[in-house]
Design a protein that fits this description.
Helix content is 42%, strand content 17%. The chain is of the alpha/beta class. The chain has a domain of 217 residues: HAD superfamily/HAD-like (Rossmann fold). Helix 3 packs across helix 6. It comes from Sinorhizobium numidicum.
Length: 332
């Protein structure tokens, strides 16, 4: 009897696997996408580079896809979420820094004048980030971020910031991984900030996150080895820094890149440089009802030069309003 069971299994297993494979191919891997050019361009590219015998076939180790985070995987309005985290930390840390009462941009922040505090532009933002992200161990910082993301809520939707992720992009991540791709985050945001939630939210482990970073220093404290976060910039992973960061961390040029702003332009240019099959996509924020509508004139996530380049190079541009059936997973 055991022999006949083994024989039956040997015949049934290939049939079962064939059924599952057929079901997977027939199922819609991108159900939150409306039918159209954007969705078809993604599916067509994946089918071409994964088809054995195809002229565009790409071996699994070379199937690298990189994604910007802010505005591409999750929302970035009314301002970058990590900046909102830093502003929160200023209030928490203020009792330890009486000098902030007369020191900008902190003085304006503590008076509730956000516009005045940020009028200093990138310099002011860097001061705020350095003051709130340093002077602690890497483990302490991780726990602070974890506590904030577990409770802080978006001012417009009332949802946790980690729920403000785009359902269509989560589907793209899963679809690519199901087809042998390795997915990376490449963002101007802080690498240690994103690594706290990247695996839980996106299925991207911390070692596949590339971002801006501050310097760290090894110390022994009471016999315990620690890494201390310093108030010094180590690397800015934005614009021309993104291809550099990819080269340093991955060592392979991606074959697919996804962004939403001019800050991602160099990453897409480098990724989609010939030869070989290449895929580049910009998410264009056109839905003022379900999300926000902004592109060329925005101070956050400006898509201007990138939009022009996408037209010239025939890259895919997602019209959020028409291409996405659903924006956020929490939508009815």
């Amino acid at each position: 009897m055991t022999y006949f069971i083994r024989v039956a299994k040997s015949y049934l297993l290939p049939i079962i696997l064939l059924v599952f494979a057929s079901s997977a191919q027939g199922a819609d891997a991108l159900p939150s996408w409306n039918e159209g050019r954007a969705k078809q361009s993604i599916v067509s590219f994946v089918e071409r580079v994964t088809a054995q015998g195809s002229a565009d076939f790409v071996p699994v180790p070379e199937r690298i896809a990189v994604f910007d985070n802010d505005g591409t995987l999750w929302a970035e309005q009314p301002m970058y979420f990590q900046l909102l985290f830093a502003l929160h930390r200023v209030k928490v840390l203020a009792p330890q820094h009486p000098e902030w009462a007369s020191q900008e941009p902190f003085a304006s922040l503590l008076k509730g004048d956000l516009k005045g505090a940020l009028s200093g532009g990138g310099t002011a933002i860097m001061q705020i980030v350095m003051a709130t992200h340093s002077g602690m161990t890497t483990e302490e910082f991780e726990q602070i971020v974890r506590d904030w993301t577990a409770s802080a809520k978006h001012p417009k939707t009332g949802q946790l910031y980690t729920k403000m992720v785009y359902q269509p992009m989560l589907e793209v991540l899963a679809y690519l991984r199901a087809n042998g791709f390795k997915t990376y985050i490449v963002s101007g945001g802080g690498i240690d900030f994103m690594r706290v939630f990247s695996e839980e939210v996106y299925g991207i482990p911390p070692e596949q996150v590339i971002g801006s970073s501050g310097k760290t220093k090894f110390e022994m404290r009471d016999g315990t080895p620690l890494l201390m976060r310093l108030a010094e910039v180590n690397f800015i992973d934005d614009k021309a820094g993104k291809p550099v960061g990819i080269h340093q961390h991955i060592g392979r040029r991606p074959i697919a890149a996804f962004g939403n702003s001019d800050g991602d332009l160099q990453m897409l240019q480098w990724t989609c440089r010939p030869p070989g099959p290449r895929f580049c996509l910009f998410v264009r924020h056109t839905d003022g009802d379900r999300e926000w509508a902004y592109d060329r004139a925005s101070s956050i996530g400006r898509l201007d030069k990138g939009l022009d380049e996408a037209g010239i190079m025939n890259w895919t541009v997602v019209d959020m309003k028409t291409d996405w059936r659903k924006v956020f997973a929490f939508e009815p």
